[in-house]
Amino acid sequence: MLLAVSNNAAAYGQNGHRIIGQIAEWHLTPVTKQAIEKLLSGDHLPEVTTWADEMRSSPDKKWWSRTKWHYISLNTIDDFKPDTYKFEDEVKDVYTGICKAIDVLSSPKSKQQEKEFYLRFLTHLVGDLHMPLHVGRAEDKGGNTIQVEFFREKMNLHTLWDTKLIESQNLSFTEFARFINTTDTKLVSNYVSTQPRDWVVESFNLRDDVYDIKDGEFSYDYIYRHMPTVKDQLRKGGIRLAGILNAIFDPNVKVGKNGVKIK
User: How many Å apart are CA 194 and CA 1, to the nearest integer?
Assistant: First the structure.
């Protein structure tokens, strides 16, 4: 089963997605930067990471059908079948959305308009997949029906993770990105030496800790406990997004057998 999320339940909120976009922009090669500038019509990468959510306000009903692109709902990890994806298949979840975007952007047969669309969606979906509750449980709609309190403010668990934890740091998205970015080449290599299927498993393995809410009343201790995970996932999301884009657009970038799968 797939869960339905409300308009205000986008993974990592606006700042989270922009943090990922900013980190990604810092890790793009010059060749990749030039290539995606042509597809973004002058917009910067951090700006377009929120486009997929903003378009959900469109009166065009097809955007509601794309809500399912933002998450994958799994009861157990055995429910995840990455090898069943095919290029011509309809996008059914965040994983197949990322695969579809990579396929379209990598294909010389894709039209310019298609590439523009899927590039914007890709920048968002990579962020979505790095938020553990977007690999959540169908029964609680990825934490949307679980009520908690954060410094006595009532909200659902999804909102806490996509927005409030990040906002608790009182940083702009550029400040946050600068603080958590890394130039450690070994760490960067480890991050990009993975595939989207690995990211699904990674987020799935994190979610039990997220779901462990005890009495559901959180404050400073919750920030202390979970902020390292939030920062780590945002950093990974940004660097991995850059890894995908570099592998697609820069022929000089080598992708190892365990790296991002492009073709």
Answer: 27
DSSP state letters, 55-95: GGGSS-THHHHGGGGG----SSGGG--GGG--TTSPP-SHH
User: Which of 255, 233, 235 minimizes the C-alpha distance to 244?
Assistant: 255
Selecting from 1.10.540.10, 2.30.29.170, 1.10.575.10, 1.10.10.60, what CATH number does the domain 13-249 have? 1.10.575.10
Domain limits, the chain: 13-249
List the structure tokens of 243. Answer: 């890894």
Buried b (16+ CB within 10 A) or exposed e, 77-88: eeebeeeebeee
Q: Torsion angle of alpha carbons 119, 121, 124, 125, nearest 10°?
A: -110
Q: What amino acid occupies position 57?
A: S
Residues 6+ apart with CB under 8 A from 39: 112, 115, 116, 119
pLDDT in tens, the chain (263 residues): 333 333 334 456 789 999 999 999 999 999 999 999 999 998 999 999 998 888 877 777 777 677 888 999 999 999 999 988 887 778 999 999 999 999 999 999 999 999 999 999 999 999 999 999 999 999 999 999 999 999 999 999 999 999 999 999 999 999 999 999 999 999 999 999 999 999 999 999 999 999 999 999 999 999 999 999 999 999 999 999 999 999 999 999 876 545 554 43
CA-to-CA dists, residue 121 to 101, 125, 168, 228, 263, angstroms: 7, 6, 27, 27, 19
